[in-house]
Design a protein that fits this description.
Length: about 140
């Protein structure tokens, strides 16, 4: 839907005679300036914030949909985000693994990607009641 909306906006601009794909921007040489930009993406809205002081970028922040979709901010009462809650006490469907090398965490991968298919994450697994901790990097290119 985001792509369709952007195509419709582009067609309207072309019909109005607009053909530029970029516009010049000069960084103000003096003073404090703040700017923000937002755009829609398939997973949610993306936001950028910039603070320029005397021609120098003083602060830049970006809020990506993945951060909100997967981790999400805690509620005022400390409740977990939706994905964190889904992963909490998630059963491990792999069996018969004898060493850390045998463990892949594919069920955790599927749970995370059900919230955001573009998410790359590092997962920490606590096994055997907390006596063993493993770390795995789980990416969307896993089988």
């Amino acid at each position: 839907m985001v792509t369709m909306e952007n195509c419709e906006r582009a067609r309207a601009l072309l019909r109005a005679g607009e053909s530029r794909t970029a516009s010049h921007f000069a960084i103000p040489p003096a003073g404090a300036h703040f700017g923000a930009g937002f755009c829609g993406a398939g997973r949610g809205f993306l936001g950028h914030w910039a603070h320029i002081v005397d021609g120098v970028l003083a602060n830049y922040q970006i809020a990506v949909p993945s951060r909100i979709n997967v981790g999400g901010p805690r509620s005022p009462w400390g409740d977990l985000g939706a994905c964190e809650e889904a992963l909490l006490h998630s059963p491990i469907i792999e069996s018969n693994f004898r060493s850390d090398a045998d463990f892949h965490g594919i069920d955790v991968l599927r749970a995370i990607q059900s919230f955001d298919p573009c998410m790359v994450c590092s997962a920490h697994f606590v096994l055997n009641g907390g006596t063993r901790v493993m770390e795995r990097v789980i990416t969307t290119d896993e089988p």
